Amino acid sequence: MPTGWFSRRILLASMGSVLLPDPGLGQRARVRRIALLFANTQPFEEALRALGYHPEELSFEIRTAEGDNARLPALAAELVQLAPEVIVTGSSAAALAAKNATSTIPIVSAFTADPVGSGLAVSLARPGGNVTGLSNIQEDTVGKELELLKTAAPLASRVAVLTNPTNPSHVASLRAAHEAAKVLGLELSIVEVRTAADVEGAAVRIRDRRADAILVLADPLFSVERKRIADLASAQKLPATYGFREHVLAGGLMSYGPDLKDSFRRAAVYVDKILKGAKPADLAFEQPTKFNLVIDIRTANALGLTIPPALLARADEIIE
After folding, report:
1. Less CB within 10 Å around the terminal CB: N or C of the chain?
2. What is the four-CA torsion angle of 217, 194, 265, 257, rounded to 10 degrees?
């Protein structure tokens, strides 16, 4: 099995054996086969258990592209061949890969930037196909991220935007970023990163273009490489903003966006409904109702920034 690929089955009996019943169940458990096309599965699995599923009822097949979107089609095709009852994905690119691999197996996306624009759904209210889940439209928040970044670093005028051209949602996000930059009086410098090997080169381009700050668009690759990206920003003394709290925990300055772990917990609710007979076509895409602003004061101090009290007052979480 290639490096980085792994799968896990949570079963109590060997192949071909009868499952031992849990005394709490009162009957033999039916094993539900679920395919997961993302890395951090813990919040999702915990949410299923909270919904009443016992470990012996669940069989997980897990694949991760480790941030490399080019691997997603092959991984999705492999999971489809295993005939799971439902496939859960963790990004827009993964959802598209899964949909291209099957039109019949239900797909739940825990993070989809633009399900209608990307062709995953006919509408948010009635998806109409085999894909549903959470719609975290980054183009609606990227302008706010730039506004917050400008507030934290008022002297910044040129912002490097880290984008992955293999991420289909980044087209709309970049368009929204350019529109917001005009209003804020910012100049954007687009820096493309396709693979982990491109991160160091991106740091050189950011330095050569004399950027004053960095906007990192939400992307699985950037999540995997969040420590390296935070380190390169710190090394160049550049304030940076991100879409997820996990980046701040890795040393980033600030983030604004939905709770990623909560999205995976909500995805478990969709899976529960589908396992009980609901059709993805009839399950509306859910949009986040709350966005969290997280600021790391330690990183701000290291960058020589004094975060305005008004911005700190708006923060949902301050790391000191």
Report:
1. N
2. 0
